[in-house]
Amino acid sequence: MKLYDYFRSSAAYRVRIAIELKSLDVERIPVHLARGEHRLPEYLAKNPQGLAPALELDDGTIIIQSLAIIDYLDALAPRPLLTPKDPLLAAKARGVALAIACDIHPLNNRRVLDYLREKLGQDESGVDAWIHHWALKGGLEAVERLIEPGPFCFGAQPTIADVCLVPQLFAARRFATPLDALPKLLAVEAHCLAQPAFAAAEPSRQADAE
Q1: Is the pLDDT at 138 greater than 90, yes or no?
Q2: Whether residue 111 has pLDDT greater than 90
Q3: How many other C-beta atoms are found inside a 10 Å radius of the C-beta of residue 81?
Q4: Which end of the chain is more exposed for a tag (fewer CB within 10 A), N or C?
């Protein structure tokens, strides 16, 4: 398998964590988003969305979207199972993962921020205000109340919630988002990053890191 990856992408970071947790052998192919490599015809032929990550299977099949890729990896290599078997616990973990992946992350990703700057004429203070508002209000502040640390987001084992949380906190820090009022999230993050799989997936440890 091949993962089309970008070291700074929080969505790709999620998939790297899942791969490391499952000890899968996956080739990493960097797609440099800041240089526009995701818009090149050869990449768009694989992923018409032009986003990272994308997973290419050995037969050439392409899977897009980080949560869909992680679902596939969970079925392929169910140890550890990132979406718990217990229906209620699975729903809670998936709810937090979706809150991050669908409600927080999209509003703060590169293409949205570029549109704010280039099309709507926002200066950096305006862009920062946008980032901080949407990352916190109804976002990470809600996730702080939803998780049930033990010491991962929902108990003693990592779930899809942890896989999404750690990259989102990384992204928040990139934009100097204040996180002091989120002690439960910070405690879960610290526990996660102490685990070898989470540490190996960190952006600074990737071959394409800058």
Answers
A1: no
A2: no
A3: 16
A4: C
